[in-house]
Amino acid sequence: MAGTNYRTTYSRSLEQREDFWLEASRAVDWSREPAAALDDSAAPLFRWFPEATLNTAYNALDRHVEAGRGDQDALIYDSAMLGIKRSFTYAELTALVARFAGVLRSQGVGKGDRVVIYMPMIPEAAIAMLATARLGAVHSVVFGGFAPKELAARIDDAGPAVIVTASGGIEPSRRVEYLPAVAEALALSSAGALPVIVKGREGFATALSDFPDWLDWDQAMERAVPAAPVEVAATDPLYILYTSGTTGTPKGVVRDNGGHAVALSWTMANIYDIGPGDVMWTASDVGWVVGHSYIVYGPLLAGATTLLYEGKPVGTPDAGAFWRVVQDHKVNVLFTAPTALRAIRKADPEAAELARYDISSLRTLFAAGERLDTETYRWAGSVLDVPVVDHWWQTETGWAICANPRGLEDLPFKPGSPTVPMPGFALSIVDGSGAPVEQGEEGNIVLGLPLPPGTLTTLWHNDDRYVSSYLAAFEGSYATGDSGYQDADGYVFVMGRTDDIINVAGHRLSTGAIEQVIASHPAVAECAVIGVADPLKGQRASAYVVLKAGVVADEGELARELVALVRKNIGPVADFKHATVVQALPKTRSGKILRKTMRQIADGDEYVVPSTIEDPEVIAQLLGVLRPEGAA
Ligand code: COA
Ligand code: AMP
């Protein structure tokens, strides 16, 4: 059974919700203190800390300087790509953020305006986020691996006043030019001409001078007048982060200011056990929620030092890269995705590289983004000799739904489980009709409303989609879209998605969005994209296409065209490489494609072909294509 401290904390968070979260809110410096925790007057839309006001960037920066910690490192930039290390104290980072806030303001950005940030892993990405927050404006960061079309969709939805970008990103195999991508996205969008601010980097083909109307970051910073933090309501939006939905249109997850600051502060102390002076390294990207919460906001709210790493787990230059960074910056907590650990293990199974470094500063390894398989869990624990904490969360929740809260209590670990529900998450497992399942039985994981502070408040300008996507399926609950079970000790086991979202190398993708792109090819009549198990990346997207009647196509050539089409429309992040032509797709009588059955066949899992399928030949061919050895 989970420990007393945890159990008391968890039940208090649900039974004495107001007291619990008001107490947690004391970790934040408010301009106007909250008098109440929850506003449920517009249920099922909830707001946290009504009436209270604050500034998130002030909480992340200025107040630590005022408390006398201005000389402590706030942010360390380590680029394995360029061999650069650079650190910024709290005083330095505060000054840069205030100055860039001045730049944004000179471009017309004020409270509530949106700023789209399309940047690689350089310090200016975090500076741009914090500067936006300083003005009470709303940032929307777009991951650099997305194609211009995806960037355009986000620009159209968010309606930014300004775009902040850089010359490009550095991938091991190539330089990714951002300026032509931003120009193309603007041309595709209906936004018209917008101010674009560019952080110049050396070694890129496209020059800022090719875009005479765009602003140079460095020059603008020289001229800028630093801006003071702007007081906003706790309920005002801090950021919009787009994530894959079940359709091609991404969902704009909205995070507020107050609930976010309170929840992240709670997690820093109680989940990660990180306080002022500690060093946290989250090896993710600021384009993902993990990067928002634990590269930028969480560690800085806690007065800790955060590390921003531009590099990969392997190949930059080798599988010792992570351990080198831990050693060089005395990292206390490392947070990464299981796929990164699998990549290191594959390249260096005996951890020979690790022996070259002193990683004695490391206290805990956290993993999230996808299920941490038990083999990787055991390998990481044994080579690093520190606790390995799997924790489960989503872009929508902004912080862990389930974790082993290391700052609260050392709960026993169970391999394959992200441990227990965190405060405020009233978790239950239900069947399709919403009725609780028997203990130990797999079902839909749902969270009773209200969700705790720090979780999404709605989808940007789309309350209806928020309600229909998350709140409609199970009355009074938020549907996580994940299935799983809970054991007799209350430990949760997350087994996979119940919808068409897949997880490729810790990146969340919609198979529906990939299908939409493939279906636009003139030779394709219909298609199904499924996530097939992959030993390194967890899953990979595989497409099965039916050609239009009379079309004769070279299969290899068609596959190459489809791969290029997905890369052009969604981006390299989709990592889409497999397309196969089939005679027909398995369907129910009502025409629904049986993607789940296809996935089960491909993964070698048990499957039942529904009796509604009338054509046995369709199944026979699919068996051969999906799992050739299974068909023999
Ligand atoms: N900008 C542009 N392109 C990017 C990019 C970025 N920020 N990030 C990735 N890409 C590109 C890669 O260059 C690659 O392109 P390619 O098809 O031309 O080779 C493609 O997207 C797929 O990249 P990736 O999924 O990273 O695969 P990989 O084989 O290059 O590397 C891993 C494999 C496991 C090392 C890598 O996926 C990894 O580090 N994963 C961790 C992910 C993570 O931290 N996720 C955060 C969730 S918590
Ligand atoms: P994202 O919104 O990109 O963070 O992806 C969220 C999804 O990733 C979740 O709904 C899960 O399907 C999956 N996921 C994230 N972390 C875990 C984990 N620790 N265990 C299992 N699945 C996870």
Entry summary:
This protein is an alpha/beta fold. It is 32% helix and 24% strand.
Averaging pLDDT over every residue, what do you get?
Answer: 95
**Number of E-type strands:** 32
User: Which stretches are poorly predicted, pLDDT < 50 over at least 5 residues?
Assistant: none
The quaternary structure here is single chain
- Corresponding CATH superfamily of the largest domain: ANL, N-terminal domain
By DSSP (H or I, 4+ residues per run), the number of helices equals 20
Q: Which small compounds were modeled alongside the protein?
A: coenzyme A, adenosine monophosphate
Could you tell me the CATH topology label of the largest domain. Answer: Rossmann fold
Rg, nearest Å: 24 Å
Described by strand count, sense and barrel closure, the largest sheet is: 7 strands, mixed
Q: Can you tell me the CATH class of the largest domain?
A: Alpha Beta
- The proportion of residues forming helix, as a percent range, comes to 25-40%
Report the structural category: alpha/beta
Separation, N- and C-terminal Cα atoms: 47 Å
Write the layout of secondary structure elements.
Layout: H1 4-15, H2 17-24, E1 38-39, E2 47-48, E3 53-54, H3 56-60, H4 62-69, E4 73-79, E5 84-89, H5 90-106, E6 114-118, H6 123-134, E7 138-141, H7 148-158, E8 162-166, E9 168-171, E10 174-177, H8 179-188, E11 196-199, E12 215-216, H9 217-223, E13 232-233, E14 237-243, E15 251-256, H10 258-270, E16 279-282, H11 289-301, E17 305-310, H12 321-329, E18 333-336, H13 338-347, E19 364-367, H14 374-384, E20 388-390, E21 402-403, E22 420-421, E23 426-430, E24 443-448, E25 458-459, H15 463-471, E26 477-486, E27 492-497, E28 501-504, E29 507-510, H16 511-519, E30 524-534, E31 538-547, H17 555-569, E32 578-581, H18 595-603, H19 616-626, H20 628-631
Helix pairs in contact: 1-2, 5-6, 7-8, 10-11, 13-14
The structure holds coenzyme A (COA) and adenosine monophosphate.
